[in-house]
Here is the input.
Amino acid sequence: MSTKDDVVQHYRMVPEDFVKHLFSTLVIVAVVVLLASILFGVPEKQPLTIKSYSTQHPVAFEQMALRALDGQGAIASYGPPYNHGTSGLQSPIQAAVGVIHPINAATDFILRPLSMASQINPSIKTSLAQFQNATPAQRAAWENAYATALNKGTYAGGSVHTLAGNYGPLPALMNDVLNLGKSGLMSGALIRNGSVVTRFDNQNYLLFLQGVPLHQAAQPLQLAGEQWGIIHSAVPGYPGAWWMTIPTWIYQWPPVASSPAADALALAIGFLFWLVLAFIPWIPGLNTLPRYLGVHRLIWKDFYNNPPSGGPESVGKGASQHAS
Here is the structure.
């Protein structure tokens, strides 16, 4: 008798609407997921945005903007794949990749957004033109002087105030950048692709707050790298990404933690672990561990406690070898 005949004769067949079954299952799963997210979901923490940071930390925001303008910012001096700086250079591989996502922090983060804003606020054009027409040496002198002055800057009346000095147009320009940030328009200016008006690129918006702002936000929440960062939740009292413990643990190893190439080393070590796991069936010694650990006997303990008649030893041995 064929297998088909056996199925037809020994199993009762009933009509079934698989579309209805699929839809009902989808609805049930959706309801369960929604209820679980309401009951057990982690509350959403307010994101760090350009608008919120410029409003809450106006002096620090101007300092960050000035570092982008003078080439000392986290991204301005980072290196590949953004530019030819060296502060973020971690490995020869990174250098070999080269600049594939070019960023000129002064132009992309500060001057171009100001140029856009000048279309609706013509008063910006005078200060902007004065800065752009100055010699590199003159710009550097203004930037250095204003950077020192901002260390004792204060915020009042909607603008940042410093001691009098020869800062050129920088106080006006940095105040315009601050107003642009507080208005919420800075984000749109950063993602705007100047050559194609309908295309938007989030790269600059995501990188603008790199450095001090992100570290200031991460430290109190125990999210910094040296604090085991990613395994902690942004909302205190809730579990974080505990499954990332192993890769985060690699970052805490002294040789990795103290290396300028920490990311590259952690990635390489993690890849080696993955290779070992992937090739366990072919690595002598490791490929026999399941047989000696006997985990399969725990999983199928009912089978081994009550083996089928007619050769339990051989069946058990065969199952063991199969499991290994």
